[in-house]
Design goal:
This protein is α/β, with parallel strands linked by helices and 408 residues long. 47% of the residues lie in helices and 12% in strands. Among the domains are: 87 residues, Four Helix Bundle (Hemerythrin (Met), subunit A); 156 residues, Rossmann fold.
């Protein structure tokens, strides 16, 4: 009997131990690996845990403190993290180009600060007794300024006669004489307006003013196209650009950047080396369909002594004319090239009938005489001048302001 009681007591002990072991296993099963519950719904409301879709239980709770109460449901839906749609990248703010009037003031100031030509002439002409050596220095100064031999002879004769007749050495009177004679050479009577208004073609339909930009390599032609587009936008013109320089890989990208800054569209080829005439044709066609005021066409820089390239330029003009009359052909010249620039200008004029000149890099008036020379040679006006590297450093050429700055 005593043995039976001992056995029953042992069995009772074993049963208690089994229950304890089984209960511990159940707790472990509930907590899962790492002490985290297994079947919690995603986004169940744990702060900081919604990204992973699980709630984190506090695994450091003392077991003696009793069972851990489940977290209360968060009924404040405004506190729940929400998926945020990625914001669309904002388009860059369009720039507002400076009006032409402000540009002219700034350009005149720059010319006046670098007035080497005018200051030299005034110094020599204001001497009490101008010697023959002085006259020779005056002539040399004019020639170095690239005025050209013919205009220099005319100016020398006029100055000699007027200074001798007046018999004056007063600086103000000498300045007035020099201003009048230089202005005569620059010719303020030439029509320097840009044809930038839509025209009616032979078909009776409106056409945008088509402007072809030409020039040799390295004159800053593509940059000038971009600056001219800015000037036209400042005058409230609707502009479209044609990237017909298809041989220089970066030219179309460069032009597109200029256009983006002021909201001007660009027509370009999707491959390098495309037919530039076809691109120009498409640009004018797109301009007609969009009803823009002006289509500016950038062409590849080319050497004036390369007959094939010059013939291609003539082809571009002929193809463009099938869509719309060519209102302007602007030749971009580097003002520092001097007489070499004159030879370039003549060849371009023979091929595409240049209607106006854009002088770039006119950053010193020591070479300002090129204005006179190129106008005399081609019989067409300088319409725009560029000074400096800024995007708005292009302005309509003002003969009076130019001469006043020279002799300031």
């Amino acid at each position: 009997m005593g043995h039976t009681e001992i056995v029953l007591e042992d069995i009772w002990i074993y049963l208690v131990l089994a229950v304890v072991v089984i209960g511990g296993g159940a707790v472990a099963l509930f907590r899962g690996r790492g002490g985290k519950p297994r079947d919690l719904p995603p986004g169940s409301g744990a702060s900081g845990g919604a990204r992973s879709g699980t709630a984190t239980l506090d695994t450091d709770t003392d077991a003696a403190a009793g069972p851990v109460a489940p977290p209360e449901a968060d009924t404040d839906t405004t506190a729940q993290p929400t998926a945020v749609e990625p914001a669309e990248p904002e388009a860059p703010a369009l720039e507002h180009p400076e009006p032409a009037a402000g540009r002219l003031v700034r350009l005149r100031e720059r010319l006046a600060r670098s007035g080497a030509l005018g200051s030299t002439l005034l110094r020599l002409l204001s001497r009490g007794d101008i010697s023959e050596a002085d006259w020779e220095e005056i002539e040399e100064t004019l020639l170095l300024a690239d005025i050209g031999a013919g205009p220099t002879d005319e100016l020398m004769q006029a100055l000699r006669t007027r200074v001798k007749v007046l018999g004056t050495t007063d600086p103000e009177q000498v300045r007035d004489i020099l201003r009048e004679e230089l202005l005569t050479l620059v010719d303020p009577g030439m029509d320097r307006r840009l044809a930038a208004s839509p025209v009616v073609g032979d078909d009776g339909e409106p056409h945008p003013a088509t402007i072809l930009m030409v020039g040799v390599n390295g004159t800053g032609k593509t940059t000038t196209v971009g600056k001219l587009a800015r000037l036209l936008v400042a005058e409230d013109r609707d502009v479209l650009l044609g990237a017909a320089d298809t041989f220089r890989a970066a030219a179309a990208d460069q032009l597109a950047t200029w256009g983006e800054r002021v909201g001007v569209p660009v027509v370009r080829s999707d491959r390098d080396g495309a037919d530039p005439a076809a691109v120009a044709f498409d640009a004018v066609k797109a301009g007609r369909e969009a009803g823009v005021d002006v289509v500016l066409i950038d062409t590849a820089g080319r050497l004036q002594n390369k007959a094939g390239l010059m013939d291609e330029l003539g082809k571009i003009k002929r193809v463009v004319a099938r869509q719309a009359p060519v209102a302007e052909v602007l030749l971009v010249l580097d003002a520092t090239t001097g007489q070499n620039g004159m030879r370039q200008a003549q060849v371009f004029a023979d091929v595409v009938d240049v209607t106006g000149i854009v002088l770039t890099k006119l950053d010193g008036t020591a070479k300002g005489g090129i204005v006179v020379a190129v106008q005399r040679e081609l019989g067409v006006p300088v319409k725009f001048v560029g000074l400096g590297e800024g995007p708005d450093d292009l302005a309509p050429f003002d003969p009076k302001g130019f001469v006043d700055a020279l002799v300031a």
